[in-house]
Design a protein that fits this description.
With 219 residues, the protein is of the alpha/beta class. It folds into two domains: 143 residues, HAD superfamily/HAD-like (Rossmann fold, 3-Layer(aba) Sandwich), CATH 3.40.50.1000; 65 residues, Orthogonal Bundle (DNA polymerase, domain 1), CATH 1.10.150. The protein has ten helices and eight strands. The strands form two sheets. Strands 5-4-1-6-7-8 form a six-stranded parallel sheet, with helices on both faces. Helix 8 runs parallel beside helix 9. The model has no long low-confidence stretch (mean pLDDT 95).
Length: 219
């Protein structure tokens, strides 16, 4: 029977609706490449995946240019975009419920850890987390599987069969599968049911409250 004692949460599109700040930062960076008019649907695709790779694919540019695009993005995001963001309704209550139940709660995000810590503190949700892990500012540790492994190592998790990854995009689900942990997709973020199902999400929920219901059944 499925048993869970550790829950890893993605940040963007799972804990917070960070889309406006990310999309504005991407729009700012794309203008440097002469892309003045980009549809919002295309910009939404940047919410969640590692940004450097996404810039490389979207702009058909080299790895070096991808790093430069991320630096342009951060010119905007680091000062303003980081706070064009809001916690999804129901998330604080869900985190509190899970914490009271006895779960170990961690964050595993492809966003730089520096930004993730700032966001969690700004929105006063940092106290719910045993550990907040993310990528490095120099572009290392951006793949979701690498972030998950890092968080599990830092938290000295011994039994991966009792770990659940919660996220809204295929990268969260695929990363969980690569590491060998369970996965739960959420539909209130930026990924679709089709995307999550194709990636192999073990279960999909529609609201933050359902995350609490699911996890509580398998503690």
């Amino acid at each position: 029977m499925l048993k869970i004692d550790t829950i890893l949460f993605d940040l963007d599109g799972t804990l917070t609706d960070s889309g406006p700040g990310i999309m504005n930062g991407v729009r700012y960076a794309l203008k440097r490449y002469g892309m003045e008019s980009v549809e919002e649907a295309e910009l939404r695709g940047f919410v969640g995946p590692p940004l450097q790779k996404k810039f490389q694919e979207f702009c058909n540019i080299s790895e070096e240019e991808g790093r430069r695009a991320v630096s342009y993005y951060r010119e905007y995001y680091g000062g303003k975009g980081i706070f064009e963001n809001q916690v999804y309704p129901g998330i604080p209550e869900t985190l509190q419920r899970l914490k009271q139940k006895g779960f170990r709660i961690c964050m595993a995000t492809s966003k730089p850890e520096h930004y993730a810590l700032q966001i969690a503190e700004y929105f006063q949700i940092d106290g719910y987390f045993d550990f907040i892990g993310g990528s490095l500012m120099d572009g290392r540790r951006t793949k979701k599987a690498d972030v998950i492994r890092y968080v599990l190592q830092e938290c000295e998790v011994q039994d991966k069969s009792r770990v659940l990854m919660v996220g809204d995009r295929e990268h969260d689900i695929l990363g969980a599968k690569q590491v060998g942990i369970h996965s739960l997709g959420v539909l209130f973020g930026y990924g679709s049911r089709e995307e999550l199902e194709k990636a192999g999400a073990e279960r999909i929920v529609e609201t933050p409250e359902e995350i609490g219901d699911f996890c509580s059944r398998y503690y």
